[in-house]
Predict the 3D structure of the following.
Amino acid sequence: MKTTLPAPDLSDEKILRFVCGIRPCRKGGLRLERDEIAGKPIVHNYGHGGCGVTLGPGGAEEVVRLVSVAAKPGDSVAVLGGGVTGLTSALALLRAGYGVRVYAETYALETVSNIAGALWLPTGIDFPEPGPARDRFNALLRRSHELFKAMDAARWGVNEYDVYEPIDTEDHPEYFESGAITPPRPMDASDPDVPGLGEGRVFRTLFIDTPRFLAELVDDIDRLGGERVTRSFGSINDVTALGESVVVNCLAMGSRRLFGDESMYPARGLLVHMQPQELAYIYHDGYRYMFPRQGALVLGGCFEPGETEPPETDDPFRRILERHRARFS
């Protein structure tokens, strides 16, 4: 018998909060490479846009490889940034035997990383042009996906869901060309009925419950002896003066000011958090989506380049809510 998936309850009584976050985007995409400034070895890991979680573990593994060119296990490494990129990098370095000190103004649940969904999908980032750089990027995606799949799902908050899209959702074949996940297929009689969807397509991918994932990162860093220092940096001289052998820069938007990367730009995202609901599926239509986190049902969204401040009124959030109500009514 054909099943029908449950519809979300999107009544006002279920609203928890309106949330605004800034994606750290970069023209040209991810910067993951070695550098040297005033004799100090630097490893850059930033420019993830909307897929910091998606690329996190794979990027962190590459950070370890790049650090190993200039330092050996047992040496001290400074990691700049307390979001998902900095914390995954710090944990990978600790597991590889390095001494790690993380410097950040805010950590984990106080960062924009905590706002992320996070659907495992490389969105909101510039892909390299076809060629060796593109091949490396896709290999990084595959490795990151492998590392997520190997995690204790219950502990780290890593689940796998069917993702349902309207049939006319904009195609992005590049999201799937790495081979880590299978591209969407048209839905057929074997699929359940999805409320409000109509003709649709479906694919399956991982979903990372970011509050739980970030909390586990912090716990493991602390358990392995990593240090966390609350600090900001006024100039690049403050960075090169650090006593650690190597600096890993995971400052995201901070890389524009501190390292002079004019390619960095902000892109605002808006979310509506509803009370959590037992919905074991995801609705996705570009930047319009519904994610079932443990602590909230997350409704999105938008991608607004250049915007850095929260809206002056609740109207944009209300429009997101009404759009979802129209879909699921």
Notes: Residues 36 and 56 are 23 Å apart (CA to CA). The first strand starts at residue 15 and ends at 26. The first helix runs from residue 52 to 67.
